[in-house]
Amino acid sequence: MGMVQHKTVEMQFNVLTRAIAKEYKLDEPGNLCPPEITSGLDLIEAEVEKLKDTWSVMAGKNIMADVVRLVAALEPRLKPASRDAAIAVKKNITGIMGGYSPSKARYQSVLCLGYKVTTVSKAFSGEASDRADLEKKADELLKAIKAAHSGTSKHHGEDSMLKIFMAPEFYFRGARGGYDADDVNGTKGGKQGLIQILRAELDKDQYKNWLFVLGTVIVISKDMKTACTQCNAPVKFVPIGGGKTKPTCSGDANHAVAEKATGAHVDNVALILKEKSVHSVAKELVSDVDYKLTDTEPHTVLIDNQKVAVNRHDTDSSGYKAGDKGPTKFQDERMGGCIFTIDGLTFGCEVCLDHAASGKSDVIGVRSDGSIGPVAYAPGRLDGADNIQISLIPSGGMSVTAFRTVPNGVIFNVDGETPHVQVMGLSTKKQKLTFARSDKRANGTAIDEAFTAKTWTDMTNWVMKLAYGPNEAVGAPIAAPSGPVLQFGPFQIPSTV
User: Fold this and answer.
1) E strands within 209-335?
2) Domain range for 162
3) How far is CA 10 from CA 26, 59, 62, 87, in A?
4) Which residues on adjacent β-strands are paired with residue 294?
5) What does pTM read for this prediction?
6) Which terminus of the chain, N or C, has fewer Cβ atoms within 10 Å?
């Protein structure tokens, strides 16, 4: 996929370079391309080459969106014929992306709807059956979404306004700390997977201009092996004829042998859905509060009724060391990480600690040996990212700790511990930067307020220092199962070109 995209976009890039070479007569002795144009072409070429390494449709869209942005930035510096070629190249690459371009996004404003529901407590809770718990949570979530949809006005139905519904981290996990991967994926007992259950409602035409961040789901993928259930002797496979074998305990052939879980991969995954398109972002960091079987047994999940510790590794597949970009599999988050492009808009989704790490060296986390203490995290996953227009932060025990969008971007946080909803952006009604929250003060009293700032710098300073300016009451909540839906906005979506 990456190679096909690369060749197609490379052809467009060659059209642009040939047009520039012709207009600037670069084949004539002594003629040189102006340095500001050469530098722009170098940046575009580097992005075009990166397309060869993309392995998913979304990664390709992310890179091509940035190619379009770079061509748009180069365009004003060019002479007329070359400028016309640049405009044509933008249009053609936009066509490859399905018609959506950062220079002409589908939406101009966004309405944020946060599901204020508790998902974090002193211990796991839920139905005795994980399958029953998954289905119950899905049903309640869909009821909340239907209530949110009913609570939007005709004005909010405009095709130019994106509606984002977000549930908090750990919305789907149950009494054992996670769901079996077979239940989540629908690969057991002929039952539907979680995303199939949700899509039965959310694929309907009435949600045409909605994007859903469906909380996170904890997926437990068990590592299985054939083992003796009565002793620790290894299992041997004894031929029984017909090319078949029988697993047998090498210590005692009369012992029972069965499939046994020896460990598991525990993934915390944000599910994102828009108009039949499904995207997911896996959380990478494990904090000291992420997995509490009970208040005295943190960092633990139950697998086949056995307690299993949940650890993170100080060094991962990217070769991360303190001081690098961060403990992430993706040195470039556009290549399959937490950045994604939909309808010409660039989103960044950081789940809880992936956002809160934020360059701190004293974050308390789970070390690879299972102990708890300071973990030297480098910057959060979106530190240093360009062109993020909307920042999505489903969390379970934190607030907004960093601004990682372009100026006047939209930042949306829904937390499942307090619980709270926080949103900021440039209000389309007031034409002022607005930060709104439904939260709790340190003493436990409720806060439902909004305040405005004149500049992006003022807003970042106020939010980071919790030194808020003049405030007013926020809108009334929408009744939903387990907690209300809070509606904020609409906010203007900033341009990145």
Assistant:
1) 210-228, 235-241, 244-249, 257-274, 277-282, 292-294, 297-298, 300-303, 306-309
2) 109-241+244-492
3) 20, 16, 16, 16
4) 297
5) 0.83
6) N
